């Protein structure tokens, strides 16, 4: 396996020069495009890493997996009264569908859905941002994980579209708390700085029937882990969920920081990272790495 | 396994009385709602059946799996120049998205997508309807399979919405052949009358890496089978793909005739059938049966 | 007045070279772009003409005014059960709004609306195309007016988008007759070949409280004439109704043949024609001519 | 004329009991539904009033006419770089069209358009709310006109949907100033409390080629007045612009406070008011009053 990740590391770097670093906030635009890391965490606790796998990067939308998991732990299936679980078929930050469906977002992996989930956590926790950060630390076994204050500030300065979605949902009665407070929690979570190794360990509970290995305990129920995987499979890759399912065939979630986490249920998690994105907002080199790995291992979601 | 399908047969019949038989064409509206059948076909060739598993019913949208497979056999990945492979997020017969995306349907499992696929087959075969019927016979090992002429005539009489979609796509240059001819082929395929046993055997190639057991040959490449499964997982259950993925977690395709085919990759196919549908057009009892089976067997797409 | 139309004729020709001749059907694409005509018909029966004002051209969407008038004569306000009378805010041939509003077109001046109106005439008249042609002859006092068979054939060959709209409306129960027959009547009316002089005389009833001067009789009630003018003001210029209202401020209807008819209520009609169109499908030179005339005369809709 | 307005006052009151008082903000929901007033202001300075014509009510969207006029005075036609002037065909507070058209509202009489216009005034004036109030006072010759602080506070508390629109436009770069500040100015203007008499006098410049009679001066150019009338004709009555144009045929602007101002160019302004609204947000009794008056006087926009 170490040989495989080393080889993938080498081949994925050939993609440098393709795609563009996210520029929707200045703090992300400064990233070095020529970075690539990959980490595998097997269910029996082995970690294999290559390249820049220990560099912390902005998790961005990968945070939506944490938000969803933590919210499902509190609200179980009543969460689905606030957010759907079907693919949206629209860009991740669209207001059109949100208006047509009266403020109930299609799924928790589009921005509007994650904002609703964040609102649920604001209702449940006194300091939701700190709670999320602490859980990320415990799940990854890395106490030095931080919320990147510069990224957070940059998100806040450029909040207009997310604010538009939050206010629209509030107009429909689907946000209970103050919009500014909800956005702050949401942005805090997106601004977590974690490495490929951190994420592969932290999210291994999705491959391991809900058991979090760094915590040494059952984090969520087995069937809940399976269900989150299903949502990742259908909705995890922005508009390209179907393309990715067709080519790679694994549950995954990507972020505009360039990271992608993929789950091989029963076996392992894989996190790949490289900042340059394709037109769908998914990392070019990280996608390629996961495609290589899936083909090499013949690992199939469904086998 | 026979015990399990017998038990599911009994429990699923408790759902009689919930849902409504499809009424969009008269020929379907006459179906007896109080029918239920289930058939399992394992990759090693065992068939387990219960209830009305040998009654022929109208395959309707399950035909889209045949259409897609046959078209991919001819066109391979060039097919995707004509049709996408991402979830649509819109009703299966919507024209709005089709117009916005200039006549290229989102995926081959919405009506517009299947009509484009049918147009491809009209270009490739002299008698496409006969070709499809013959393949259905050979895949299921049942030479008596027929196209139901009454259903076909009824589809034709009520073709307005499908005709609207076909003409819109032709306006965008995405239909090459005469609209009437394409619709006729499409409706013929939807009007195939097959039983749960027929379908479970016929589509077992999707569970068996592309090997068709009744034909005794490799019908499509293994990776193509995996890819079709991915599309079924993300797009197979009309608007409820995400709900079904969350609850059942298997690649599946349903039809308004009341049938649903589900794939357990590497293991088996399951076909359940009962005519009464929920508001998404999916059979109430057949969905329930698949949920029971998935939970009992702990079979997970991804394990 | 003759001096004014001569001057406008001269100035409008300076616009030659701007815009593009309609190319959606081959028969129109062949038009000579460097044509311009203008005709004024006053309520007291004077006709002033300049340039190519006696060349027959394809009336195209100007026919929608005839269709609407003839249908209102038969059905009066019950017509509005089939078609709305509010601006659409969408392209004239959009299916999105038609689907959202369940097959009831926004107004009679978008294609879908005119097709519904044509369906009403097919229900009312044994030979609707002939009826429309005959009325056009009597209103203009020109017995030689013809339906251009080449244009009609070309419309038919390229009917896909209009057929899509007609089938969609039929799916919603808003078309009573056979789609092919309805489209044939609609295209026949659009294929009328008339000159600026013909149209200015024929539609003068809209300026003259419903009195048709060539027929010497009250063609429609005065309040109905006023109401058709209101619809022309709000919906007559495709997507540019507001722009045209802002700049010119007169009820008008344009066609992709390059003609525009404008009404100065209580005073006169003006028809200008030149084949090259702007991106909204309105003739560049004809719009300019009407703007010049409105400014020169200080004629205001509302004074 | 006094006799006519007295008669209309009597007949319009028969509509009491039809429609519902606006309830989107609590401060409006408390209005007494059984109020009706009408005032006519002729271009030669006569005022005819009946019923509750001197009761101040919340002008709400009628304020959009003031906002537009004041902004056109500053920016002239460059204003149209920020906002369109075509009918929207969508509900007045829709975000769907705003997103599709990248943050440029269709016209200045939908909420998004008026918010953009307010942003322009925030850029131009140190104290825009005070400026608007002072102009309303001078135009009506009534120095006691106030912004209703309770309505303003209520608008602010229920700003979510307007905030969503403003943030969406800011995301597209079409709002220059702080969203809270822009909304405050917009709501202030909507919260002006004026009577039928105040409004009929204040907006008479639109009937009088731009001459404001209470100020005794040319307020805007004659062609600008004509153009504002055209926008009112095509866009002034929310979704019912076409219906109103068909039935009444005058440029008008309504507000959810129950007021409607109508323009008879060259002659007079009419303001009617009654709080109960139809499903389009237009006052039932005020619309009826204007229809009676238009029919009685035979005044036609276009004559």
Quick structural overview:
Chain A has 303 residues and is α+β, with helices and mostly antiparallel strands.
Protein model, in words:
- Chains A, B, C, D: One of its GO terms (biological process) is L-glutamine catabolic process.
- Chains A, B, C, D: Keywords: Acetylation, Hydrolase.
- Chains A, B, C, D: Substrate binds at residues 61, 111, 155, 162, 186, 238, 256.
- Chains A, B, C, D: It catalyses: L-glutamine + H2O = L-glutamate + NH4(+).
- 4 copies of one chain form a homotetramer.
- With 303 residues, chain A is of the alpha+beta class.
- Chain A has a single domain (2-297), classed as 3-Layer(aba) Sandwich (Beta-lactamase), CATH 3.40.710.10.
- Chain A contains 13 helices and 12 strands.
- The first copy, chain A, has helices at 2-12, 26-29, 63-75, 96-100, 111-124, 128-140, 149-157, 160-171, 179-190, 196-202, 222-235, 241-247, 284-297; strands at residues 20-21, 37-42, 47-51, 57-58, 146-147, 192-194, 211-212, 217-218, 252-254, 259-264, 268-273, 276-277.
- The longest helix of chain A is centred in the middle third of the chain and has 14 residues, at 111-124.
- Chain A is globular.
- Chains in contact: A-B, A-D, B-C, C-D.
- The A-B interface holds A 84-90, 97, 106-107, 226-227, 229-231, 233-235, 239-243, 245-247, 249-251, 263-266, 300-303 and B 84-90, 97, 106-107, 226-227, 229-231, 233-235, 239-243, 245-247, 249-251, 263-266, 300-303.
């Amino acid at each position: 396996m170490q040989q495989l990740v080393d080889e993938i590391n080498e081949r994925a770097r050939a993609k440098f020069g393709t795609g563009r670093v996210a520029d929707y906030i200045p703090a992300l635009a400064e990233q070095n495009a020529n970075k690539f890391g990959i980490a595998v965490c097997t269910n029996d606790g082995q970690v294999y890493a290559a390249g820049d796998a220990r560099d912390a990067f902005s998790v961005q939308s990968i945070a939506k997996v944490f938000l969803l998991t933590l919210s499902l732990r509190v609200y179980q299936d009543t969460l689905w009264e606030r957010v759907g679980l079907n693919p949206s078929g629209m860009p991740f930050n669209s207001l059109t569908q949100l208006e047509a469906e009266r403020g109930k977002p299609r799924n928790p992996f589009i921005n509007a859905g994650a904002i609703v989930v964040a609102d649920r956590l604001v209702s449940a926790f006194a300091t939701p941002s700190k709670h999320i950060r602490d859980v990320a630390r415990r799940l990854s076994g890395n106490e030095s994980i931080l919320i990147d204050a510069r990224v957070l500030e940059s998100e806040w300065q450029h909040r207009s579209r997310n604010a538009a979605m939050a206010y629209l949902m509030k107009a429909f009665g689907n946000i209970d708390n103050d919009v500014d407070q909800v956005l702050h929690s949401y942005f805090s979570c997106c601004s977590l700085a974690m490495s490929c190794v951190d994420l592969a360990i932290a999210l291994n509970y999705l491959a391991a029937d809900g058991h979090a290995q760094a915590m040494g305990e059952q984090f969520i129920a087995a069937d809940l882990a399976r269900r989150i995987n299903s949502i990742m499979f259908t909705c995890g890759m922005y508009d390209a969920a179907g393309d990715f399912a067709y080519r790679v065939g694994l549950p995954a979630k990507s972020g505009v920081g360039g990271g992608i986490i993929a789950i091989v249920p029963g076996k392992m998690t894989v996190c790949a990272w490289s900042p340059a994105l394709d037109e769908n907002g998914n990392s070019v080199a990280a996608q390629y790495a996961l495609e290589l790995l899936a083909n090499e291992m013949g690992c199939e979601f469904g086998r």
